[in-house]
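Purpose: get a first structural picture of the assembly so the mutagenesis plan has something to point at.
Setup: two entries, given in the order below. No constraints added.
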Amino acid sequence: MTKLVLKVKGMHCASCAILIDKLLIKQAGVIAVSTSYGAQKVALEFDEAKISLEQIDAFVNKLGYDVIRPDEASNSIEEEEAAEENELRLAKRRVVAAFAIASPIIAYYMGVHMFNLPHVHQIWGIDLNYIYWILSTPIQFVIAWPFYRNAYSAIRIGAANMDVLVVLGTTAAYLYSMLGFLFFNIDHPFWESSAALISFILLGRYVEVVAKGRASSAIKELLKLEAKDAHVERDGKEVTILLEELIEGDIVIVKPGEKVPVDGTIIEGETHIDEKVVTGESFPVKRKSGDEVIGATVNLEGRFKFKATKVGKDTLLNQIVRMVEEAQAKRAPVQDLVDKVSEYFVPVVVILSVLTFVGWVFIADLPVKAGMLRMIAVLVISCPCAMGLATPTALVVGIGRAAKFGIILKGGEALEKAYKVNTVALDKTGTLTIGKPIVTDFVLLDESVREEDMAILAASAEMGSEHPLARAVIEHGKKFGGVGEIKKFEGIQGMGIRADIAYNKKSYNVVIGNMMYMKQLKIDAQIYIKKLETLQEQAKTVVFLLVNNKPIALIAMADTLKPYAKEAIAELKKMGKKVIMITGDNEKTARAIAREVGIDDILAEVLPQDKAATVKKLQSEGRNVAMVGDGINDSPALAQANLGIAIGSGSDVAIETGEIILVKDDLRDVAIAMQLSRKTIVKVWQNLFWAFFYNVAAIPVAAGAHLLITQVSFGIAAPWIIAIQQNYGAIGQIFYNISQATLRPEIAGFAMAFSSVSVVANSMTLRSYVPPAEKESRRVEALKKKAPTLEIKK
Amino acid sequence: MNKFAIIGIVLVAILTGGFIYKQSTDTDNCSADNGKDVAFTVYSKKLEWKFEPESISVKKCDRVSLTVINEDNFDHGVAIDAFGISQRLPANGTINIDFVASKEGEFPFYCSVSCSTSENPSFGLKNGKVETGTYAGTVRGHFEQIGKFIVTLVNGTTN
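Result (structure tokens, whole complex):
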């Protein structure tokens, strides 16, 4: 079984994606197909024993599209861009050619129809219709050739897509004009319909190509971030090699200002690294020996060596790119609805157009020509392209925008789920808190000593210990620089440690331990009990520090909140979401953290295996739950929740399970992800409304059905129309003219192209989304800039 | 069943239904013996945006032969919606339109292509005014070029 996401070339309309899905899934061995028109990609799952990728490629080729197989893929971004540019250039050339040839026709008919200029059908004794005939023929059959090709392939395989409609509409208009002019002396040949319509549809598609290029630019920008080469140590010498030649385990040297080529662990040196490109974190982070570095991030100052642990397609950057690609290729449930509608749309339109013809010719008793005119208008107006564009463009832009903030949405489904969430459940340790204790208070009990010395002594003593809390004391001591030497060390299980430390040429006996240990050592600790209990109430773990058997300090340790956790909770509450904390910790600790971060509802002492059941219980209360977690133990809950949000710093399992991945360790992204999802889904519905509204409203007008209410008899306006005409001056006259006219095919074509462009433009506005935190900081920046001038004014 | 086959069947059904409807409701009864041949010559007067005559009366079922002559140097059209007539009237040209007046009523009979107005200075006007003719001094154009085509019942026959 093989799972692949591949680029597809040649898709020009949402119907194409449906076509590929529908036909590919029927092939033996193909398990799942999901094609995205917006992302120009297909997510394939197939059994290689039954069907090869070459066979799939050949099959798709037969449909008129091209799957780019990995072996023929041009991985380099330059080639990719060149190919896209070429596509863009071809689309542009087609548009330019179409408009160049069509412009005399368009200009003439626009002048005549919009400015009421006289019809002059002759120049130097030549009937202009001959010229229009000559001009529109290459547009119809050469420039518009791809429409014919695609329509043919669609019909051959038993599907009817949008190209079928274009071909039907324009060919009918062309033949009508030609035959009418040559044999029937018609007063309105439709040269401009076929020419202008094709030109406008081509223009619409050109805009789409540009839009699609922009939508996937987030990915391209990510890939551009990769370093081109790397300096590695080979046989003790430093050599520069291409990134592709780098293998796992290589020792890589990174100089100041250079990009870290791949993921790895530092073995020598320390530095500050700008990780913004991958994590979105705006401040440079300190990295030293033993720390992990991420490929494509920028080394700001020091020179360091690291061991490459992940290279090529396994690096975090490439994983992110792949996830975004998969997400864009996945379909949202709302698309199923759209697809169903599109699929039935073409046959319904064909039937409607014939009904229109029958209505005018057989029921209204008009000649065939009058019926044909309206039939053509119906065919032209009903192109479902705007409808097909509504969902994919919004999703592609929304997902791309989210990726920019370091939020990976795994597909449109995640967006839709995030939009529906009303309850956010957060895991405590590792999600709300950093997940490892730090020293929060160092309360001196003896005022005669220097705090830093005592902290250093405590840290030095703890160096011998492997207790998790020891780490916190060591980190705390490190802040003061300097370290003592352990001469003797003893750990007492469940109580504490005792050590002899040489520091500043003196020797100290250091004891760190709990109340129980104090009792055993017969130290009178009762006088400090009040201080101790105050700290314990804040859910902190407190130990005594004795130096030379004398109580010196209370060391309080606790897990602390992640930066911005408070702001994130406040933002979620502001959005009207119910926020619940789920933790395995005891009630007291949980309460303390909850109070600090601003959460009202907690579910404490929940065993890891019960987390999923707890989420289920919340769901049974009718809640739509998003679970935010990071650990392996959160994975079942992430899967159970309506929406799983995994913190990027967490385990791989959690990231696999989550539907939304927050690359940087910032809880505010939960709110951003939900806001962006809501905005995207709203955009989808807006787009769908406009596309549907347009088709539904325009078809009856094109069919001339409005004449049933605006005219009482043939060519005679209804009394209410005449009343408006007489009572509302110029506006009344315009209304009268419009009400008495049928939507002419060329106007229909223009309106259709316009609707496609407006849907794409509406989706593009998603790119302007700015998260509230950034908005706030921009506001503050602006105020800062303003402040001096205000003072001057005073 | 094949989708196209279904669509095809539906389309044939609609067309057949329409055809049958027309046959069953066709109350015109205009056969060769209940109408006579009538002929009219209509002029589209030069720079007047006016048909002459402006009103044409016929009896129902008459076989009408219209000869329309365009005196202008630009195109006009002739349209009567009720009979589905809409023909090009080339500059300085003459066309013939033959049809049966199968519907009773008063129908507009108008120029079907946009043919500008007398305000447009490209039509040999002086100081923005039409030099000669019945409508000198008034603005006329495409929307004014409407006549009446009246079809009355033949005495004594009811349909």
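The two ends of chain B are 47 Å apart (CA to CA).
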